[in-house]
Amino acid sequence: MGDNQLLDIGRRVELAGLELLKAWTLLTELTTAANMRTARDKSVEADYPGASIEGVMFTEFGRFTGNYDGLMRLSALTHEAHDKDLVKVKKILGALRGWSQQENLKTQMNNSVAANAVDTKLTVFFIQSNGVEYEASETERINEWILEVKIVACPSKA
């Protein structure tokens, strides 16, 4: 598999996950669907509070299987000035954790519009939240807390 395939699987996971996160009602009570985005989406002005999803570190699982092992990095984001005590960012992170721990999340992802579109076909075999959260704020203006979720997927329909 080439480098494009490696990058492609992360993007497919992001698109399917973003579609479902926008529909996650618990999260949208804390932020809006418009404030949900992929981490690499720089086409819109970021607004806060918000959240993002990023497919990272995908590598082929096994030899010549076509299955990839990686992470969905879920980020909760708030303005530091409006969330000095981190209450809002932790609530968003809790909503992201709840989303990632749904028993049928794998099925939801496999049934998403993005996972069934011709150019972004995706089959998810395994999803598990590792439960570890950490702060990743890069500036003093933005609070960012991350939860990583392990995922095994194939960039086609199995």
Gist?
With 158 residues, this protein is an alpha+beta fold. It has helices at 3-23, 25-28, 87-100, 105-111, 113-116, and strands at 36-38, 50-60, 68-79, 123-135, 142-154. The protein has one domain (3-154): STM4215-like, CATH 3.30.2000.
Structural overview:
With 158 residues, this protein is of the alpha+beta class. It has one domain (3-154): STM4215-like (2-Layer Sandwich). It is 32% helix and 33% strand. Strands 1-2-3-5-4 form a 5-stranded mixed β-sheet. It is globular. The model is unreliable at 1-7 (pLDDT under 50).
Query: Whole-Å distance between the termini?
Result: 17 Å
**Morphology:** globular
Beta-strand level of the residues, as a percent range?
Answer: 25-35%
Order of helices and strands: HHEEEHHHEE
Helix content bin: 25-40%
* CATH level 1 name: Alpha Beta
Q: What's the structural domain tally?
A: 1
CATH architecture: 2-Layer Sandwich
Estimated structural class? alpha+beta
Average pLDDT confidence is 87
Helix segment tally: 5
Instruction: List segments where confidence is low: pLDDT < 50 over at least 5 consecutive residues.
Output: 1-7
Strand order of the largest sheet: 1-2-3-5-4
| CATH T-level fold name | STM4215-like
> What is the makeup of the main sheet?
5 strands, mixed
Spatial extent as radius of gyration: 15 Å
